[in-house]
Design a protein that fits this description.
The chain has helices spanning 16-23, 50-60, 98-109, 133-138, 185-200, and strands at 31-35, 39-45, 71-74, 79-85, 88-93, 114-118, 123-129, 155-160, 163-171, 175-181. By secondary structure, it is α+β, with helices and mostly antiparallel strands. A five-stranded antiparallel β-sheet has the order 1-7-10-9-8. A five-stranded antiparallel β-sheet has the order 3-4-5-2-6, covered by helices on one side.
Length: 202
């Protein structure tokens, strides 16, 4: 006898109304939304092994970024590969793709020096976009987010409002994705809402 499949709940259920109010604010300077259930795979590989990099690149549809704090886009824009360290990347894709992608990457690693771990359940993603988005982030983030230093295709592991996140700029608007541990997601969402309200107060 099979039981009913349990409903999947995102870490930020209940924030939809508050996020919607931000998007519908009169000035329209910032939009805020959760992007739940994205596939996230932690990839470790020997970056010196050109053959291994080639096999992984063939699966990903793009070469692994080797420059620190850079990201590449593949698979029609659905897939992002973020540099996390000299031998570590985070592969992000559409919800539901993690199982197939994990198998493909494991096959590409073969006997090479590397590993693939599905970390999709570890984090959720908050989208922060609009002309005022950078000002909001700069209120709680120590890295330089000015376009001369940080733009589309850049990523960094840092703190936002005392919460560890991965900041990934995905568009010049600017538009950011903030990847945060599920257990800290509500705290970060509340911090962002307070920061946005503070910025909009005359």
């Amino acid at each position: 006898m099979t039981g009913a499949m349990a409903a999947r709940h995102s870490p930020l259920e209940g924030f939809e109304a508050a996020f919607g109010q931000v998007a519908g604010s009169p000035d329209g300077a910032v939009s805020l939304a959760e992007v739940p259930f994205l596939a996230q795979l932690d990839l470790r590989a020997d970056s010196v092994d050109a053959s291994l990099r080639g096999r992984l690149g063939a699966v990903l549809g793009a070469d692994l970024p080797l420059v620190p704090n850079r990201a590449v886009v593949a698979n029609g824009g659905d897939r992002h590969v973020l540099w996390l360290g000299p031998d570590e990347w985070l592969v992000i894709d559409r919800p539901g793709t993690e199982t197939t992608l994990e198998k493909q990457l494991r096959a590409a690693v073969q006997d090479g020096r590397g590993s693939v771990v599905d970390v999709s359940a570890n984090r959720t993603t908050i989208s922060l976009a609009g002309p005022g988005a950078r000002d909001v982030l700069e209120g709680g983030c120590s890295i330089d987010l000015h376009p001369r230093a940080f733009g589309p295709g850049r990523c960094a592991q840092t703190l936002v409002g005392r919460t560890g996140v991965i900041v990934h700029q995905v568009s010049p608007e600017p538009g950011y994705r903030l990847l945060v541990r599920s257990s800290f997601a509500a705290y970060l969402a509340t911090w962002l809402l307070d920061a946005i309200e503070g910025d909009s107060t005359p």
